Amino acid sequence: MRRLGAYATFLLLLAAALGIRFYPQLRRWLPAARDLGPALAPVAAPGSAPVEGPYFSDGGRVAERVIAAINRTQKSLHIAIYDLTQPDITAALADARRRGVEVLIVADEGQAHEKHSEIPYLRSLGISVRLSRGYKGNRSIMHNKFAVFDGRLAETGSFNWTTSAESFNYENALFIADPAVVARFESEFQRIWAQAQ
Questions:
Q1: How far apart, in Å, are the Cα atoms of 42 and each of 62, 188, 189?
Q2: 122, CA 20 to 30 Å: which among 92, 110, 112, 169?
Q3: What pLDDT shows up at residue 147?
Q4: What is the reported pLDDT for 110?
Q5: CA dist., res. 27 & res. 150, Å (int)
Q6: pLDDT of residue 46
Q7: Is the Cβ–Cβ distance between 73 and 101 less than 8 Å?
Q8: Rounded to 5°, angle at Cα 31 from 29 and 37
Q9: Of 132, 134, 184, 196, whose CA–CA distance to 154 is shortest?
Q10: Chain centroid, CA 134 distance in Å
């Protein structure tokens, strides 16, 4: 009986260690990862205020606002992002893909190969991802941080779609529904998409 207790304790400690190590990746599969908690003030929607924000990471619930915008997207979502490690955003992108939204991502090539990057997982789901080294090659990076939702709403700012940006860094984000500004972001996305691989 004592041996069984020691074995159970070992398994419990092993499960806890693995859970801590892989928790960010596991969160994207857990139903609770999509629970946004108390009602969130809506972000800009087409036809409403032309600018919502700025929102700040130390209280502005930026990741939740990004997720809310992803969840409202019906046709296309074009993302130019330096880094993506936030599992709840990843889960929302996977859900968008499942419901038929065209999801296109241009990410920084170097960051996409980092240990916690969600880019390989998103590619495994069939999401179209291209990688960029920026416009000057090896000494350059793709450092944009913007998204265009249905060609009618843009999100931009310093906020990387990462766990660090949400939980540790001072970051900011704006949501813009002004058609001329959104069109500029969409045009830039198409230019970057064309040069990325």
A1: 11, 26, 25
A2: 169
A3: 98
A4: 86
A5: 27
A6: 46
A7: yes
A8: 130
A9: 184
A10: 19
Q: How far apart are CA 106 and CA 78, in angstroms?
A: 8
34 burial (CB, 10 Å; 0-12 / 13-18 / 19+) is middle
Residue 84 sits at φ, ψ, to 5 deg, of: -140, 110
* pLDDT of 120: 94
Query: Phi and psi (nearest 5°) for 85?
Result: -130, 0
pTM for the whole structure: 0.76
Cα distances (angstroms) measured from residue 22 to each of 15, 62, 108, 166? 10, 23, 23, 18
The number of CA neighbours under 13 Å toward the Cβ of 110 is 10
Q: How far apart are CA 194 and CA 76, in angstroms?
A: 17
What does the radius of gyration of the chain's CA atoms come to, in whole angstroms? Answer: 19
**pLDDT at residue 129, rounded to an integer:** 96
Q: What is the mean pLDDT of each run of 10 residues along the chain (197 residues)?
A: 62 60 54 46 55 89 94 97 93 97 94 86 95 78 94 95 87 94 97 93
Scan for tokens 């060609």, then name that residue.
Answer: 151
Structure tokens at 127: 């999401």
Which residues on adjacent β-strands are paired with residue 56? Answer: 172
Local structure of residue 161 (DSSP, 8 states): B
